[in-house]
């Protein structure tokens, strides 16, 4: 093999390596941009789902499936959705949609009620 053939083969090899590098770099960048877009879409989806849930919570007591008199329901929103005042009981109510679960704060409230750690206190304002 003569020297000119070696130079051509060497040049082709270098060109191929550079081409592969450029292609890999391009697709790596494209993949990174797609991952960023996907993360943004997932975040927006969660945000929209949360907003939908918050809006829905305000209307749940008005649905036919709501088992109590909705006129006696008082909406709070956070940390629980509301309080139902019945003649012989008071019920703290949390509405959930789809796969949503109780937050840590809501689980603590639930456990306090289960453990009978709920009380009533009258505080008089001294003006």
Task: Write the SSE topology.
Elements: H1 3-59, E1 73-75, E2 82-85, E3 90-93, H2 104-114
Antiparallel strand pairs: 1-2, 2-3
Structural write-up:
With 127 residues, this protein is mainly α. The chain has a domain at 67-114. 54% of the residues lie in helices and 9% in strands. It is built from two helices and three strands; from the N terminus they run αβββα. Strands 1-2-3 form a three-stranded antiparallel beta sheet, with no helix packed on it. The longest helix is centred in the N-terminal third of the chain and has 57 residues, at 3-59. The radius of gyration is 31 Å and the shape is rod-shaped. The mean pLDDT is 89.
Record the strand order, biggest sheet.
1-2-3
Structural class: mainly alpha
- Mean pLDDT across every amino acid position: 89
Inertia-based shape: rod-shaped
Describe this structure in a few short sentences.
The chain has a domain at 67-114. It is built from two helices and three strands, in the order αβββα.
Which characteristics define this entry?
127 residues, mainly alpha, 54% helix, 9% strand
